[in-house]
Amino acid sequence: MRIGILTSGGDAPGLNAVIRGAVLRGSVVDGHEFVGFRDGWRGLVEGDAMPLARTQVRGIARDGGTILGSSRVSPYREGAGPEVVRAVLAAHGVDAVIAVGGEGTLAAARRLVDEGIPIVGVPKTIDNDLDGTDVTFGFDTAVQIATDAMDRLRTTGDSHGRCMVAEVMGRHVGWIALHSGIAAGAHAILVPERRTTIEQIAAWVTSARERGRAPLVVVAEGFLLDQADDPHSERGLDAFGRPRLGGIGERIAPRIEAATGIETRAATLGHVQRGGVPTAFDRVLATRLGQAASDMVGRAEWGRMASLRGTEITSVPFAAALDALKTVPEHRYDEAAALFG
Amino acid sequence: MRIGILTSGGDAPGLNAVIRGAVLRGSVVDGHEFVGFRDGWRGLVEGDAMPLARTQVRGIARDGGTILGSSRVSPYREGAGPEVVRAVLAAHGVDAVIAVGGEGTLAAARRLVDEGIPIVGVPKTIDNDLDGTDVTFGFDTAVQIATDAMDRLRTTGDSHGRCMVAEVMGRHVGWIALHSGIAAGAHAILVPERRTTIEQIAAWVTSARERGRAPLVVVAEGFLLDQADDPHSERGLDAFGRPRLGGIGERIAPRIEAATGIETRAATLGHVQRGGVPTAFDRVLATRLGQAASDMVGRAEWGRMASLRGTEITSVPFAAALDALKTVPEHRYDEAAALFG
Amino acid sequence: MRIGILTSGGDAPGLNAVIRGAVLRGSVVDGHEFVGFRDGWRGLVEGDAMPLARTQVRGIARDGGTILGSSRVSPYREGAGPEVVRAVLAAHGVDAVIAVGGEGTLAAARRLVDEGIPIVGVPKTIDNDLDGTDVTFGFDTAVQIATDAMDRLRTTGDSHGRCMVAEVMGRHVGWIALHSGIAAGAHAILVPERRTTIEQIAAWVTSARERGRAPLVVVAEGFLLDQADDPHSERGLDAFGRPRLGGIGERIAPRIEAATGIETRAATLGHVQRGGVPTAFDRVLATRLGQAASDMVGRAEWGRMASLRGTEITSVPFAAALDALKTVPEHRYDEAAALFG
Amino acid sequence: MRIGILTSGGDAPGLNAVIRGAVLRGSVVDGHEFVGFRDGWRGLVEGDAMPLARTQVRGIARDGGTILGSSRVSPYREGAGPEVVRAVLAAHGVDAVIAVGGEGTLAAARRLVDEGIPIVGVPKTIDNDLDGTDVTFGFDTAVQIATDAMDRLRTTGDSHGRCMVAEVMGRHVGWIALHSGIAAGAHAILVPERRTTIEQIAAWVTSARERGRAPLVVVAEGFLLDQADDPHSERGLDAFGRPRLGGIGERIAPRIEAATGIETRAATLGHVQRGGVPTAFDRVLATRLGQAASDMVGRAEWGRMASLRGTEITSVPFAAALDALKTVPEHRYDEAAALFG
């Protein structure tokens, strides 16, 4: 068979390992051929493809980013759609597609599968908010980077007796905040799933200070203050319709300082969390997912995505990932809060 | 309740996070008190204990090693045994014990539980060879360190056109070799579970060279050459009964060179793999296991150990870990071999 | 002799190594005693001191921050001054002071020396803007952190075909931007010493793109656009007199995007650059400076600071550091610009 | 002009940055053309060359190794020599050569220059044993890797109350041992420049233990025990003329254990020290040296090598590097010994 691969949506450490895993598994073992579509669905709807032989993927498992490029283009954008996709696949002699991407990518893939296009998926989100798999690749790297950064921030907090606020990724879910906060020993973990008042945050910060610590607060970018406490806590847009400069971390730091009297500084970790060399964990996971996706093509498992369950890779229908956002469950948050509350 | 903790056996990154997790969970939430027994079972049989209040465990989740010390002393050594243990616990007013350790530790704990001593366990092995849990803490850190080292060795191999052999930990199982080998893109992964001939290894190495690569071989310390190929491949002892200087890596490197004509160098990663700052993954896992162990004491789950299953912490009887060594299954090895074979 | 040590001003990786170096050198070799004043000059004017025996400094060379704490308090603040300092030193039996700090600290120390207080200095600034020494400790760590971050940002830029802007520390000088920019292979390096127009920046960015690269721009926080190009480029204050949220990186990113048509994202590295485990280079440099400072006390070199010249530690008068800011010289900037211009 | 570059001798982090620095400086600014000779002098005497345009060197500053390959071939080997070199240069239209290498490379280059071949040099040795420059690139990376490894070994030593011995690179000089030992806080630093008895080492180890520390010993691979103490301390060869398996670290560990009664383990860091991503310091230094070498060609500075003096790059005659090995001076060793002695 001739298999097309595309990587779509935001960057995530491990994309190249997925590509390499699929190509090595499929070409060496099963004799498939591979092509890569450039920049996600854009390459597929425009017929922009590159060969993906064994030599193209050598040594890339440790490289961040994706050799195929990525974009947020939809296969259903103006002038595209299933007929265009079908025509491009035919023109390139491609029998099936492995789509690596997040919620939007998998939702588009599901529609295309419903139209008869043979696609299997590999879930991708550094936020870890996709259901249907224990964990997604890229998440472990993001948590490690955030943890390393907090390890550094903590020493400066200690030197100055300051409270440090670290804003990490996570628009809708708090997984990165939760895990990096546990790992770094944060004194408050603020996640989108749990609205919290400034009073509660100040109580945690003050309690840490009273135990002799320089308070460390980790906040997911999508965290919202309790509405009663802050009617204006929604993320604002500036006059040009762009997100307001300064995220939630920079906005709550002065409020924590005001409420506690403790000098408080914020750091926004930003894009650094989604690039660069993947952790060994993510390289292994991504490689295995890529291998599994190639096998799934061989078994014609259209409309399903590779998934980690315990220690094994299996597959689940796209719907398993798309039905619900995987949020931090209450017991996990409370378990973490027991460390600082 | 008053709970004693001990850490026993070889060092593993995450031991301190287990201790901190148990103490914070148990003391802050449930009002337990904690004491630490120094150097594993030695401290318990000799009554060598230290207080473990919240202040003792602050900030230690990121520190490698164990603040309690460790040793390989058995509670059944000459002059010890269940009566001694019972007496020490009574003397220190300790109601139950959390024992953090590997196969030997858990086997001893099982005997003590059978004698009526209230013990719960936390599994520990960087080799990941304990059954009954998806993964053990310390393993992720060891894999990361081995992967980083191989990333470095690879560039030198490339510069000189050499074959590099990296010997990693794993006396009885090849998990570290398998995962670090996948992550680093090794061209041969040699594990204790799979005897291999020099001819096969040379074929992999030559094949990598023919594809233009500097061959990278990862070998677990417990790997054995196929017996037909090497009747003397057992690990030897020197005249003083010590393990022979030079491990399997250094012993197979000249044989690979002889068989392939490619200059070959070995590096033994050694003790570096089991010390130092744990990865974020291991800090989170170890913290959660420590918390769970404290909860298990509250529920009087004697004779059980905390265990990771998928994304949740549960508990299993000691027997689940002790009945069989968790070896690399055939399908996992073959899956990895598809990347280089 | 009995020697007091204080660390003053912003946090810098290596402060603890200075303390350890001074204490070990002075106590073990020369039989001095040491005390630490807490939080910089505050501890000295308030008589807040802690013992600094060998046991207090063990193992701290690798720890970021300062075990003595730091602050920006001046010894000439209301109610302080040379008489107060003299009295505190007498009360604690302290014969001389080692002051570790930046420009403000050394300037205050110079005034106190002029009043007859026996002080030697150790220069500290992660910005590397102090003259009189080849380099200051903390700078190497800051450059490494910034470089690592840019290595990560680059892969995301590549995946999305974006221009990434990294804002690094450096209010008055561009040393961190210069060195991290060279190390990371930036396509534009923007420093306070060299006003640049948006047109020039856009030309560099466009040129990189035309060579097939995802443009990477590093900008020091104190960089100013060419005035003709931007009459409002001074750092603004918000209504509360705080620095405006959003630094120069976030402010020029949309202008680069507008001028080039290339999607552009900014990341502000912030406080992460000044905390955490120091590089080996900084640990060695800081240790040697601390040792030298102890020796300088033995030789009564009041009013002088330890200084690195080539491979040797020497001492220079405070004035050598204070007379002029050490800016990036033209030939160094032009040399770096040759890499991207 | 058309300039040839070659990299010769052992691998060192920063080789690619030298190549990139030379090519970017020479081609973009001065309009030179570049070719690379493969595998050091081998490529030059065999006429094995590759083009080195801007596109070949992009993004390589952060990559370990050398894109040109390296070898230990001499230009004076059988069948080579100045006439062959001259003929190859003429055949490839190469006007001058930049030779990047250590003592052997520079000595060969000096002979060729004496024969009229236009060559400039860039000094390379991770051991830092070349005179004529403050420091060589690759050394900082090697020290950082060794320090990181010792940070890890230390925690395991602490957990088990063991003495850990780390063997680092340095056949003839102890610079890596000295700097990594200072940075990691070693309790004994053993260098080739200073023969030491087992009794002295045991005294240091015992003293550290008595202060409550797990002793950490760093030993350069070329260290020799005091002869009176060990008549057999020369590095032995096995029956095949290979270096004996097991270096000095593994050989002194049991002797330390015997002399102190403290369980002692050795780790040999090996090739990991000379590969992989260079530190930011080495990338900057190597880039500047490469740029300077290109400029030196423009000024026809044959027989000279680029050199770091303080903060500036200058050039010195090859003889400055070749007249004497740069050993650790007594005052530097004694200064370090003051930290543990």
TrEMBL record, chains A, B, C, D:
Name assigned to this protein: ATP-dependent 6-phosphofructokinase
Keyword set includes Thylakoid: no
Major localisation: cytoplasm
Keywords, alphabetical: ATP-binding, Cytoplasm, Glycolysis, Kinase, Magnesium, Metal-binding, Nucleotide-binding, Transferase
EC supergroup of this enzyme: transferase
Residues the record lists as binding substrate: 125-127, 162, 169-171, 221, 265, 271-274
Pathway assigned to this chain's UniProt record: Carbohydrate degradation; glycolysis; D-glyceraldehyde 3-phosphate and glycerone phosphate from D-glucose: step 3/4
NCBIfam families registered for this protein in UniProt: PRK03202.1
Cellular localisation: Cytoplasm
Lineage: Bacteria, Bacillati, Actinomycetota, Actinomycetes, Micrococcales
Gene3D superfamilies: 3.40.50.450, Phosphofructokinase domain (3.40.50.460)
Organism expressing this protein natively: Agrococcus versicolor
Recorded name of the encoding gene: pfkA
Keyword Metal-binding: yes
